[in-house]
Write a structure and sequence with these properties.
By secondary structure, the protein is α/β, with parallel strands linked by helices. The chain is built from ten helices and 16 strands. The protein has a single domain, classed as Ribokinase (UDP-N-acetylmuramoyl-L-alanine:D-glutamate ligase, 3-Layer(aba) Sandwich). The protein has a ten-stranded mixed sheet, with helices on both faces.
Length: 315
């Protein structure tokens, strides 16, 4: 149950970013351009980087909320109902008439454990920050963002700074103008990036050099996820590598999103950095044993009973 204060839901974690519905297609193999392949199964579930992170945090026992816009179409209804079922506060979600909700078509090669995404860009207008949404953010401990809609991310970050709320960024979506990427990354406190984001944004040739450079921009926590190859994190001005968990990978859809949600859940529960990394890695790895970004997200008891803190190796 979400606590309230003056009629406003009080949650520890507020998300602003990508929210969509995924159409998940299992295929025999990914075809060459102008070729074809057979779809063997189709299923659907909610998706989107920040929205899925909020679902992961909620399953792990953290009161979370999503702020954003969706359309008044069938896809929007599916998005909203799933978030409600997961216990995510959606009082900051506006349903806009005549607008198409975001969706993504995902082709999954289960033999290789890989996925290829075809997201619908859409034309959803920016968030209007009314008093209710502002108060939701003001009462939170952490704001989690992605760069999918740059205007929304920057506006939310400015408000969070004003309210002295910690800011977390999923560094995966890049703007064409790299100055904008650096500007957003410099505004946040927790920066967890994809494998390719650090070198692309920093201009440095290696992950070690890239992470050390980005750590001078302002974030207190800087790291990069590398799938089965684990995590690279800056600790005390040095880069450390943390190995990942070995699982039977069926589908990597949403793994990074789940990592973010689990990391922030562990952080809010007072775990140290190394434990946060290990908990996030285990949660994301377990997800990869299931189709889709949300089906395999586990609960806090399972994670706490099974994670094994790995000592990072200094590079």
């Amino acid at each position: 149950m979400i606590r309230t204060k003056g009629g406003v839901g009080i949650v520890s974690l507020v998300g602003v970013g990508h929210c969509c519905h995924d159409y998940l297609c299992l295929i025999d193999e990914y075809p060459p351009e102008d070729g074809s392949t057979r779809i063997t199964s189709v299923s659907t579930q909610g998706g989107g980087a920040v929205a899925t992170a909020m679902v992961a945090a909620s399953r792990l026992g953290i009161e979370s909320a999503f702020i954003g816009n969706i359309g008044d179409d069938e896809v929007g209804s599916l998005i909203l109902e799933e978030l409600k079922r997961e216990g995510v506060d959606v009082s900051g979600v506006e349903v806009l008439p005549g607008v198409q909700s975001l969706r993504s078509y995902v082709m999954i090669d289960t033999k290789k454990g890989t996925r290829t995404k075809f997201p619908y860009k859409g034309n959803i207008p920016p968030i209007v920050w009314d008093e209710h949404k502002k108060n939701m953010l003001k009462n939170a401990k952490i704001l989690h963002l992605d760069g999918t809609d740059y205007e929304n991310a920057v506006n939310a970050a400015e408000l969070a700074k004003e309210y002295k709320v910690l800011i977390s960024l999923d560094g995966s979506t890049r703007q064409k103008d790299n100055r904008l990427n650096k500007e957003l990354a410099s505004r946040v406190d927790i920066l967890i990036m994809s494998a390719v984001y650090p070198t692309a944004v920093s201009g440095k040739p290696t992950i070690k050099e890239a992470l050390l450079e980005i750590s001078t921009w302002g974030p207190e926590i800087v790291m990069s996820t590398a799938g089965a190859d684990g995590v690279f994190a800056v600790i005390d001005n040095h880069v450390y590598h943390f190995e990942g968990y070995k699982v039977n990978v069926v589908d990597t859809t949403g793994a990074g999103d789940v990592f973010h949600g689990a990391f922030l859940a562990a952080y809010l529960k007072g775990k140290n950095l190394e434990d946060c990394i290990s908990i996030a890695q285990l949660t994301a790895a377990l997800k990869c044993e299931h189709i889709g970004g949300r089906t395999g997200i586990t609960d806090w008891k399972t994670v706490e009973n099974n994670y094994k803190p790995f000592a990072g190796v200094r590079l």
